[in-house]
Specification:
By secondary structure, the chain is an alpha/beta fold. About 50% of the residues lie in helices and about 15% in strands. The longest helix has 13 residues, at about 200-215.
Length: about 270
């Protein structure tokens, strides 16, 4: 029944090579057998069938934000605005590639910038963060299928809240870092108790979310090494390379995609 539903959903629209192969195999293989054995030299991922099946069954999908939901690194955009672009970009790259502990890179980047609240608000007003192609459609499709969407990011809540509002994601569904300001709005540090402020923070964040909401199947989608750490408790990690392709992420991803369209097609197959 699952195989027939996928075949009907995809037969009338353009699909990627992996989805075409899936339809062909589903005509002769049971869903369980297919998703345990499917592999393709034309796609990247360690457990593509399982990742697709997890997405199909997910009751919550958690997205990284920088270079995933938006088409840039928010902290790099802030650094560029403050004249610290090159130094901060290098630290961001080291953190995303897994070469530097996340908490160390976060501390160093913020110490370099020392952003005030007014500077961040002015940046967002003058240069609003731009959504990655296809993500709005994917999030809308997830909402239509009653799948909860979360933004779990090592970025800053003050910058992510406008993104959540644009995607109709509840502000309560954001787990991100809090920049601390004094009574004059000047930079005072960041909340080190936030799980996403530390290495291995994303699995801890997902554990907290699951404990609170009792989700059975969670999927993590992101572009960085810290996102890959979220499995477990995520049932699958889907690596996204539509903004930046990171070799370390390709190696760890259950399924690595360059476009959100493949994910949207899987979601739309759901009843």
């Amino acid at each position: 029944m699952f195989a027939a539903r996928i075949g009907r959903a995809l037969s009338s629209q353009p699909v990627s090579l992996i989805c075409r192969q899936t339809v062909c195999l589903m005509s002769s293989v049971s869903p369980d057998g297919l998703f345990k054995s499917l592999g393709s030299s034309d796609t990247v991922g360690n457990s593509i069938p399982e990742a697709m099946f997890s997405l199909y069954n997910a009751d919550a999908v958690c997205f990284d934000v920088d270079s995933t939901v938006i088409d840039e690194e928010g902290i790099d955009a802030l650094a560029e605005y403050l004249g610290k672009g090159e130094e901060v970009a290098e630290l961001t790259k080291q953190a995303m590639d897994g070469d530097t502990k996340f908490q160390d890179a976060l501390q160093m980047r913020l110490d370099l910038m020392k952003p005030s609240k007014s500077q961040i608000e002015t940046l967002l007003d003058e240069q609003p963060l731009v959504l990655t192609n296809g993500v709005a459609n994917l999030v809308k499709s997830l909402h239509e299928k009653n799948v909860d969407v979360w933004l779990v990011s090592g970025g800053f809540r003050i910058m992510i809240e406008p993104v959540a509002e644009e995607l109709n994601i509840p502000i309560s569904n954001i787990v991100a870092n809090h920049i601390l300001f004094d009574h004059n709005g000047e930079y005072e540090g960041f909340d080190k108790d936030e799980p996403t402020s530390r290495d291995m923070g994303k699995p801890k964040a997902l554990e907290q979310i699951r404990a609170k909401k009792s989700y059975e199947t969670m999927v993590m989608v992101g572009d960085g090494a810290t996102d890959a750490q979220a499995k477990p408790p995520a049932a699958a990690f889907i690596g996204f390379g539509g903004v930046v392709e990171r070799e370390a992420v390709k190696e760890k991803a259950d399924w690595f995609v360059l476009s959100f369209d493949d994910l949207t097609r899987i979601v739309r197959m759901r009843p």
